[in-house]
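USER: If only I could read backbone structure tokens as easily as an amino acid sequence. It would mean a lot if you studied the pair and described how this chain folds. Here is the record:
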Amino acid sequence: TFSHSGRFIKFPEVVEVTENLNLTYSTLRRRLHDDATSISDRFNAQYLWDKGYTGSGIRVGVFDTGLKENHPHFRNIVERTDWTDENTKDDALGHGTFVAGVIASHGECKGFASDADIYSFRVFTSNKVSYTSWFLEAFNYAIHIEINILNLSIGGPDFMDEPFVEKVWEMSANNIIVVSAIGNDGPLFGTLNNPADQLDVIGVGGIDFKDQVASFSSRGMTTWELPYGYGRVKPDILAYGQSVVGSTIFGGCRTLSGTSVASPVVAGAITLLASTLPPESRWKKLNPASMKQVLVEGARRLPNSYIFEQGFGKLDLLESYQILKEYEPRASFIPATLDLTDCPYMWPYCSQPMYHGSMPIIINVTILNGLGVTGEIVGEPKWITSQEENYLEVSFSYPSILWPWTGFLGIYLKVSTKASKWQGVVEGYVELQIKSPPGPGETSFRSANLILPIKVEVIKTPPRAKRVLWDQYHNLRYPSGYFPRDALWVKNEPFDWNGDHLHTN
């Protein structure tokens, strides 16, 4: 087994409506996000079913607590494997059955893609225990058998578990679309769980049936980059995760809540969407980046939630279907625009105007490279504005290589000396060029020119007496990464895991 001194993962029990069961925890333990509705009708899946799309030919891996052989709710349980030390493939807890049912049940509590091929990976014991080493072995097998979509209704706060993180990258590089729950540690900010906080993974948050972000749903930003940078936007997408109806161990239905429910909702929708493309061209178009592009561009933004609560909005299955029909490989930014005057969505960036002498704003933008698994930024990013005076100084940081399918662009905004006595709105855009190796049957490099509009409100420099200094570097500090503690349910102590930063703690 893999030994890692920083691993200390809690495992919240399934919460059925309002019942809280006892917590257990141990070293190297991942957790099931379940504090866990038939859900497909709420996303109008019937429209695609009527066209004959039901998930046929799509291989879906469910990493969870197992699944009963010949379960009456499933048409195609292709393979069940056990990666624990218990020598059984059955589900003793019901979580794995529920998650698989949301994706592919054809019973009374219908999932999204009833004809999908289901591969059950049992990676938790009946005592809710798992180890990183079990996941690594199961991930290798998922790559070997060429799983298309993999659902992880699990996670933990330790993004420094390098073998786990790197294996998730390897799966993405092998064109496996990984979907993961962002966690049930809301409403605090900076509480994202890994692997949902990774660039290449589709991180899913939860909402209720009033389209409000669930209080339990973890919030961004990512904390990998703190305290020396700024976190990325997560979650990527929201789906219903409260009082969702799904399958039970032997048949029948029940309701569960949690982001571990929202995750298979999105995984099921992705499976259904994938089946709408012709098999011969399906995987030439679909990859972790292109699928995330289709989802976030089709999503519906919620009116009263921040970007670090909702990401890019609520899943819209049919809008994403329309985008996918016309999709050609391309690269894009998320978010697609940076309007720092757009409140409340762009909180905390929109909470006050910028001025000369104020602390520079750092924005960590994700690059989705649907052109290929690897890519690079050509030349340097450019800041372009049509205004006569350039009141905004813009600089950048970025990786030399984009891999797998993703990268980032760090944007630093600072008001210039010229604007110390000026007030108004600065508008412009960042221009960036990306290239990737040729696709199948192609001879020339693929390329894309990206444009990122930026809008910032600037005011005259206020007198010193009206300014407050946030001293990020002389407050309570702790090792970057997860700080182990015994009382995992205590979330308000000074040395917590939310990130020592103004907007996460």
User: Anything to note?
Assistant: The first strand starts at residue 8 and ends at 11.
